[in-house]
Amino acid sequence: MSEQPWAGHHGGLPPAGGHGYTLTIPPRRRRPWLWVTLGTVLAVLAGALVWLVVDTAPDAPPAARGEVGQTKVVRASDGNSTLAIPVDWEELPDDFKAEGASLTYGQIFQERYLMMFTDEKSDYDDFADYEDSAVMLMADLPSEATRVGDREPVRVGGLSGARYEVTGTFDGEPCVFWFTLIEGDRRYYHVMTWTLAARKETAGPALAKVVDSFQESP
């Protein structure tokens, strides 16, 4: 591959959408993140990804043990929101970002990834429509044994929302995703995080903490 790995990465990531996976977009209305997210997830999780095994023994470095540590505030590229992420997370290079994503960060040693999208309210009937569309696409994740968990009502940055846990197997690798949908004052937001299923116990709470730091900008 000609692309250079991003900071801390010892494996190869294919360019976003590089596996030719396509989805047919319904003509009813524009729903950008619903389509680009799945294509990017496939690109990241498909066979070209080399998983980095990290020792999680007690004497392993903090990053390997799953500790969150210090954070830094990053602003979405559209300027509409912020998140507080661990200082050792890196922004993925342009070749590995989903088109339309306002934030794309991760930590390869911990196998923790995050993408955020912003959508205009005018593209949906209401938040229920936004959420229903998301659940439909979650169930259609092209993985083995995809399972969408129960709806979990959440409050994120003082805003109402819902979170869903989705599990599936990609190229033999069991993975877990969390889809957090947020009803902002001016826009709708979707924050998707994911990790290997084997890392769920440590990664899950840490990823939730990052998502829960969401703030809609004035």
In summary, what is this structure?
Keywords: Membrane, Transmembrane, Transmembrane helix. The chain has 218 residues and is an alpha+beta fold.
Give a description of the structure.
The protein has helices at 32-45, 62-65, 127-139, 200-212; strands at residues 71-75, 81-86, 90-91, 103-107, 112-120, 144-148, 152-156, 159-170, 173-183, 187-196, 215-216. Strands 3, 4, 5, 6, 7, 8, 9 and 10 form an eight-stranded antiparallel beta sheet that branches. Strands 1-2-11 form a three-stranded antiparallel beta sheet. It contains four helices and eleven strands, in the order ααβββββαβββββαβ. The chain has one domain: Mog1/PsbP, alpha/beta/alpha sandwich (Protein Transport Mog1p, Chain A), CATH 3.40.1000.10. It is globular, with a radius of gyration of 16 Å. Helix content is 20%, strand content 33%.
